[in-house]
Design brief:
Layout lengths: L2 H9 L1 H10 L12 E3 L2 E2 L3 E3 L3 E3 L5 H13 L13 E3 L1 H17 L11 E3 L2 H4 L5
């Protein structure tokens, strides 16, 4: 095992997680809350969808345009539209800001936003105790 392999094994996220679980006085693995990232419990965050469903009344124009583009010159073709969605403006805005901030530090880089989370409104979910 080389030095780099030892470092990778010693300081990887999975090794750190294992050390926390194995440490005396730490909660057991069954009692640990699932996390979306270290220190961010999954039950306090909700994923922002990349696409939002469209009202069924607005499906017809989208279906006609998509069918016309897909069919092209082949009139005998058949197209079935199962779902129509629109891009979520909140998701787009956050993705653009995050990639712009990342590109500011590393100009010749590219980024792919996989998921975006927002913190849940915790005030509305808790009841006031008298």
């Amino acid at each position: 095992m080389g030095f780099r392999s030892w470092l990778r094994e010693r300081f990887s996220r999975s090794a750190q997680r294992k050390r926390r679980v194995d440490a005396p006085g730490s909660p057991s693995a069954h009692a640990a809350r699932p996390e979306i990232a270290p220190g961010f419990p999954q039950d306090e965050w909700e994923e922002v969808p990349a696409y939002l469903p469209v009202d069924p009344a607005e499906h017809l124009p989208a279906c006609i345009i998509a069918s016309a583009i897909a069919a092209g010159a082949q009139e005998e073709s058949k197209l079935v539209v199962k779902r129509v969605s629109v891009a979520n403006p909140e998701h787009q805005r956050v993705a653009v800001i995050a990639t712009a901030l990342g590109a500011g530090a590393l100009e010749k880089s590219s980024f792919a936003v996989k998921r975006i989370y927002k913190q849940k409104d915790m005030e509305g979910t808790q009841s006031d105790a008298a």
